[in-house]
Amino acid sequence: MGVEFERKASKLINSEGWVAILANLILFFLKYWAGIVSGSLALIADAWHTLSDSISSVILLIGNRYTRKPADKGHPFGHGRSELITSILIGSILGFVAFFFALEGYDKLHSHEGSNYGTIALAVTIISILTKEALAQYAFFVGRKTKSNSVIADGWHHRSDAFSSVIVLVGIFVGKYFWWIDGALSIAVALLILYSGFKIIADSASVILGERPDPATIESVKKIVNRLGIDGMAPHHFHIHNYVMHHELTFHVRLPNEMSIEQAHRIVSNIESVILNELGIDATIHIEPFITDKNCKHID
Question: Within a 10 A sphere around the Cβ of 3, how many other Cβ atoms?
Answer without folding.
Answer: 8
